[in-house]
Structures are given as structure tokens and as C-alpha cells.
């Protein structure tokens, strides 16, 4: 079950593409955009990451910290971040701890085949760690506009 507006964001710790350990508590007092995406370097995930990259200054100006999360490993994230010059951390969640805590690991369907995967979702978390917005219908090419409202 996915988290809802008003819920406290679950705490987590994970490594980013550079091997840095990142915890939710590192950002206490800041607004966070945490976006969950299925797979590095796929067309839709690349469009989404590049939308956030291209509007990163506007996101920073609004006081947002941006974090991407997928179940890919650090090495995959490093390649993805370098290839597209992504200025924000991509957290590796190969054990599914974060995707499951946020309720975004679930059944998906592609070409009639059911499988388990990350359900593309973005959470906007306030300075106190409370979820202010959940974006579940993601426009990958214009995702930053959805976040900036």
C-alpha cells in the first residue's frame, strides 16, 4: 500500500551512485522530492531524469532536494548519472527496502505479461518529513513542471 499525503515518510539509508551513504534524516529541515523509477537508461526513465536535470536550478530555487531511487545497483546508477550529467543522487535499492517502505513495489503489466516492479511515483516531503504530495500519474517529459506545480 502506497503512502498517502499526511503520512510520515519512512526513514531509510542507501548508497548513491558515488558510494555515499544517504539517509532521509540527512535532509531534516529541507523539502525533498523523492522519485521512484523502474530502470536506469530506459527511455521513459531517462526522459524523467532529464526533465528534473534541466529544471534543477528551479527546483533548488524552490528549496527542493532531489533524490532518485530505483532497484538498480550503484554501478548502473553511476553510468546513468554520468551519461546524462544528472546533478542529484540516485539511490541504489537492490534489496527493495525503500521501494517497499514507500509502497511502490508492486504488480505491473507489459504486453499482457504480469511482473513485479517499481511503480513510477514521486513523493514531495516537507521539512518535518511529512508527505505533502504524491504524484502517481507521471508525465516523464514534463515531470519537473508537475513537481513545481
From TrEMBL:
PROSITE patterns the record matches: THIOREDOXIN_2
Residues annotated as domain Thioredoxin: 3-149
EC primary class: oxidoreductase
Reaction equation(s) it catalyzes: a hydroperoxide + [thioredoxin]-dithiol = an alcohol + [thioredoxin]-disulfide + H2O
Keywords of this entry: Antioxidant, Disulfide bond, Oxidoreductase, Peroxidase, Redox-active center
Gene3D superfamilies with a match to the protein in the record: Glutaredoxin
Location of the active site: 45
Any GO MF annotation of the entry: thioredoxin peroxidase activity
Gene Ontology CC annotations of this record: cytoplasm
Keyword Disulfide bond annotated: yes
InterPro entries the record matches: AhpC/TSA, Peroxiredoxin_AhpC-typ, Peroxiredoxin_BCP/PrxQ, Thioredoxin-like_sf, Thioredoxin_domain
One of the GO BP terms on file: cellular response to oxidative stress
Pfam families with a match to the protein in the record: AhpC-TSA
Coiled-coil blocks: none
UniProt xrefs under CDD domains: PRX_BCP
EC number(s) on file: 1.11.1.24
Subunit structure: Monomer.
Family recorded in the similarity comment: Belongs to the peroxiredoxin family. BCP/PrxQ subfamily.
Function, in words: Thiol-specific peroxidase that catalyzes the reduction of hydrogen peroxide and organic hydroperoxides to water and alcohols, respectively. Plays a role in cell protection against oxidative stress by detoxifying peroxides and as sensor of hydrogen peroxide-mediated signaling events.
Name of the protein: thioredoxin-dependent peroxiredoxin
Species of origin: Runella defluvii
Amino acid at each position: 500500500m502506497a503512502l498517502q499525503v499526511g503520512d510520515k515518510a519512512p526513514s531509510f539509508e542507501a548508497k548513491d551512485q558515488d558510494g555515499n551513504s544517504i539517509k532521509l534524516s540527512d535532509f531534516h529541515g529541507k523539502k525533498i522530492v523523492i522519485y521512484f523509477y523502474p530502470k536506469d537508461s530506459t527511455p521513459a526513465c531517462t526522459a524523467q531524469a532529464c526533465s528534473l536535470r534541466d529544471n534543477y536550478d528551479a527546483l533548488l530555487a524552490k528549496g527542493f532536494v532531489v533524490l532518485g531511487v530505483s532497484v538498480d545497483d550503484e554501478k548502473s546508477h553511476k553510468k546513468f548519472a554520468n551519461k546524462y550529467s544528472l546533478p542529484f543522487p540516485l539511490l541504489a535499492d537492490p534489496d527493495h527496502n525503500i521501494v517497499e517502505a514507500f509502497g511502490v513495489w508492486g504488480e505491473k503489466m507489459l504486453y499482457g505479461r504480469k511482473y513485479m516492479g517499481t511503480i513510477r511515483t514521486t513523493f514531495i516531503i516537507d521539512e518535518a518529513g511529512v508527505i505533502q504530495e504524491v504524484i502517481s500519474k507521471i508525465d516523464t517529459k514534463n515531470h519537473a513542471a508537475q513537481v513545481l506545480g
